[in-house]
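ARCHIVE RECORD
Type: protein–small molecule complex
Small molecule: NAP
Source of inputs: curated submission
Record status: active
Notes field left blank by submitter.
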Amino acid sequence: MERPYIICHMLTSLDGKIIGDYLKEERSAYFTDLYEKIHGQYNSKAWICGRVTLEEHFTFGHKLDLSDENIETIPRIDYVANNDAKTFVVAVDPFGKLGWTENSIAPWNEHRLEDHIVEVLTEQVSDAYLAHLKKMGISYIFGGKDQLNFSIVVEKLKKLFSIDKLMLEGGGYLNGSLLNEGLIDELSLILVPIVDAASNSVTLFETSSFLKSQPVNFFLKEIEKLNDGGIWIKYITKTV
Ligand SMILES: NC(=O)c1ccc[n+]([C@@H]2O[C@H](COP(=O)([O-])OP(=O)(O)OC[C@H]3O[C@@H](n4cnc5c(N)ncnc54)[C@H](OP(=O)(O)O)[C@@H]3O)[C@@H](O)[C@H]2O)c1
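STRUCTURE (tokenized, with ligand):
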């Protein structure tokens, strides 16, 4: 299978939480800034993110009103809207819920570029949503009829957008999905020296009713001490 090299780049509390009140502590700002800086250092042309994270940070829960549109059936065929795009955000949105109003995400700090949006959908998405994406100039690919198969998704990312290196940037359910399909090559983990201690917040890798889970071995590649007691750990999943 021809696919990108996939690096899961994340920041967690000491107890493995990817969200929570620990992020509001003053000390956390240094680590969240560093997260962005390290993202830039990887020099990758694409990052992939789950619907919940994108809704929280980029579309802010905006809902599209597509009810008035009288749309003909649109074939479930992948659509490349922008052949000139240099960098990409890959949005895992199986049922087409994200309320995009533009076809790219603008850089929000010095380590991010203008990223063209590529939606990852199932064939269950509505025709009205597909028509909206086309109107906006947003690219889309299909990853399955009812459920997503990420092996197919990442192969398409390589083939259609020449993505050789992909940053997997959460949240926990998306990370868990790729982990379960054996698609993570490397983990870049910033460990923030705070325990969140909430039992109900999302961890680095989650599972759900449609995701089976099994232990996955990681092997230490590099470890770097950060200021203020943090650690940046790099693990790989294959030793050869
Ligand atoms: N600390 C960090 O480094 C970091 C990084 C990124 C995000 N975060 C945080 O993580 C939180 C969200 O994490 P999350 O795990 O709840 O959500 P998520 O992974 O961002 O999004 C989950 C959603 O993505 C879609 N999805 C994921 N896996 C799928 C699969 N196998 N098949 C079909 N659809 C799939 C589903 O969308 P539908 O529900 O539409 O079906 C699912 O509900 C946010 O609060 C964000 O701030 C933290």
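CURATOR ANNOTATION: The chain is about 20% helix and 25% strand.
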